[in-house]
Design brief:
The chain is 40% helix and 21% strand. The protein has 599 residues and is of the alpha+beta class. It has three domains: 179 residues, Bira Bifunctional Protein, Domain 2 (BirA Bifunctional Protein, domain 2), CATH 3.30.930.10; 106 residues, no CATH class; 148 residues, 2-Layer Sandwich (Threonyl-tRNA Synthetase, Chain A, domain 2). Strand 4, helix 4 and strand 5 form a beta-alpha-beta unit. Helix 8 packs antiparallel against helix 9 and helix 8 packs across helix 12. It is globular. It starts with 6 loop residues before the first helix and ends with a strand.
Length: 599
């Protein structure tokens, strides 16, 4: 086993290594995707760089590395075991049409085995490569490179697309074969077919090099990319748990403070039982994820749709498990304070948005307490009727109605019925739940999920219009106005911004006039690449959450607006047409929303 290091040490070591090999350190992007409408949150380090992976130049160059915040909720029900998380940090490095497999694999090998870095023994290193199929040939090149570095053929496994292919998060996008690196932990083999990736725990997946050679098209075909890219990924939480010899990610310093805080408030300890351990982990994970979502500069708040619904679900699940531990009302705020303190030096946006995080958590916890109260009253009515009719099993559809209409957790329904000697029709509940999911998925397939819907001409025009709108709002309302999110399709734009009060009709008219005035003046829209510090000095509008010296794109519309942005734009404001505000409304506390169109 290599030496034990902390999360802070791993982040620093990783970035330093790639910087020494000619990579520019860039800031991790927002948890809210700006260039990928197919996902609600940034789920991998590559997502913010999709345009660059498809050929658009990156301001920082062709060799990049960063630490990226990620959210994945596909396995939310598995959270509570030793490794599943909804929020995690991903260490990544990229080659955008620069070097390819030989250099990437060589550097990965050095970082893993050199005593200066992770220092694993060569005999403990195992790798997998893509075995090929009818569409794409086997990755013999990667296997050959590993052999040249000294990895014996018995440590190299050829696996299928399910194991060694990185596909796009949505239906289309950059993709290609990958080579995964595993460390043999020295545990007994699970059988004669034991191998890296079998899941028995003998082999720990520590890293992944993705070789993006193809683009998957809407027809399902794989066509060669104009440029070959490399994307590497190493998860912070899982890696340090393994390096520290911990049995679980929850046993590391990243979770110790919040678990101690839960123990202090509940009087319970992880390990008392599987149920108690699971409750501790779910609360810690879900609140950590919620703190990072709420602390993001894009301003997501709990709601009933999209990202807001995911956030609400995370908070409410933490409330449910908190009740199982006997944590009283108001538990989320002090636990969130603990998380902010633990991460504030690495992610300063959490400190900057501390008050918003705490206020939203407290408000959502309070709302859910009321929801539970209303659901309890409804359940009591149902139980009275059951007793009158001498029924012993609560119908599954009724249990689902309590869950769907009142947000009353199914586990609560089971517990209360059990206390009164009654059963619950689990199969009926599952059938009702599955039917609901099918309806929801069908609706979701038709719904637009964030950022820009596409790069069409109409969407590009409306995206450019948001720059003019942003500046017009600042002129009209004041310099406190900052973008808090946007949602743009080919038909309309939706723009969220910080402002404490409803806009007056006069203010709305002035904003419209300012935007249409900029359009009528036929202002050229130009782009310059500069550092963040230069963008600040040029009075460009931006969140400025990145590092000093980092390169960004600044789009200027004549003498009217100047904004840091990475999306598509028209070349002249005269291409936009007439701008009209359709609606102005509240989005969340301190955030207003404008819906507008171009005619």
């Amino acid at each position: 086993m290599s030496r034990s290091i902390t999360a802070n040490e791993l982040r620093t070591m990783f970035l330093d290594y790639w910087r020494r090999n000619g990579h520019q350190i860039i800031s991790g992007a927002s948890l809210i995707p700006q260039n990928d409408p197919t996902v609600l949150f940034t789920t991998a380090g590559m997502h913010p760089l999709v345009p660059n992976l498809l050929g658009e130049p990156h301001p920082a160059g062709r060799r990049l590395c960063d630490v990226q915040k990620c959210i994945r909720t596909g396995d939310i029900d598995a959270v509570g075991d030793a490794s599943h998380l909804t929020f995690f940090e991903m260490l990544g490095s990229w080659s955008l049409g620069d070097y390819f497999k030989k250099e990437a694999i060589g550097w990965s090998f050095e970082f893993l085995t050199s005593p200066e870095y992770l220092g694993f023994a060569l005999e403990s290193l195992y790798v997998t490569v893509f075995k090929g199929n009818e569409d794409v040939p086997a990755d013999d090149e990667s296997a050959g490179i590993w052999k040249e570095l000294g990895v014996p053929g018995s440590h190299i496994f050829f696996l299928g697309m399910e194991e060694n292919w990185w596909g796009p998060a949505g239906q289309t996008g950059p993709c290609g074969p990958d080579t995964e690196m595993f460390i043999d932990l020295g545990r007994p083999a699970c059988g004669p077919d034991c191998r890296p990736g079998c899941g028995c725990g003998k082999y720990f997946e520590i890293w992944n090099d993705v070789f993006m050679q193809y683009e998957k098209t809407a027809s399902g075909a794989y066509i060669p990319l104009k440029q070959h890219n490399v994307d590497t990924g190493m998860g912070v939480e899982r890696t340090i748990a393994m390096l520290q010899g911990k049995a679980s990610v929850y046993d590391t310093e990243l979770f110790a403070p919040i678990l101690e805080a839960i123990a202090a408030r509940s009087g319970r300890r992880p390990g008392e039982s599987d149920a108690v351990t699971r409750a501790f982990r779910v609360i810690a994970d879900h609140l950590r994820s919620s703190v990072f979502i709420l602390g993001d500069e894009q301003g997501v708040t709990p709601g009933n749709l999209g990202r807001g619904y995911v956030l609400r679900r995370l908070i409410r699940r933490s409330v449910r498990y908190a009740k199982n531990l006997g944590l009283g009302p108001g538990f989320s705020t002090p636990l969130a304070e603990c998380i902010i303190e633990n991460y504030r030096d690495v992610y300063p946006e959490l400190e900057q948005n501390r008050q918003r995080i705490l206020a939203e958590l407290a408000g959502e916890e309070e709302k859910f307490e009321k929801t539970l109260k209303d659901g309890m009253q409804e359940l009591e009515k149902v139980l009275q009727q059951m007793k009158q009719h001498k029924q012993s099993v609560l119908a599954g559809r009724v249990a689902f109605r309590l869950y769907d209409t009142y947000g009353f957790p199914f586990e609560f329904t089971q517990e209360i019925c059990s206390e009164q000697g009654l059963g619950v029709d689990l199969d009926g509940f599952r059938k009702a739940f599955e039917k609901h999911q099918q309806i929801s998925r069908a609706g979701a397939d038709k719904a637009f999920k964030g950022g820009l819907a596409d790069n069409s001409e109409a969407t590009t025009r409306l995206h450019t219009a948001t720059h003019l709108l942003h500046r017009a709002l600042q002129i009209t309302l004041g310099s406190h106005v900052r973008q808090k999110g946007s949602n743009i399709t080919a038909e309309r734009l939706r723009f969220d911004f910080s402002h404490p009060a409803r806009m007056t009709p006069e203010e709305l008219q002035k904003v419209e006039a300012l935007v249409n005035g900029a359009i009528a003046r036929a202002l050229p829209v130009t782009m310059e690449t500069m550092t963040l510090e230069e963008a600040r000095k040029a009075d460009a509008t931006a969140l400025f959450a990145g590092k000093y010296g980092e390169s960004v794109k600044v789009y200027t519309a004549g003498d009217f607006s100047k904004e840091v942005c990475g999306g598509p734009h028209v070349r002249n404001t005269s291409e936009l047409g007439r701008f009209r505000i359709v609606k102005e409304e509240a989005s969340s506390a301190g955030v207003r929303r404008i819906r507008a169109i171009l005619e």
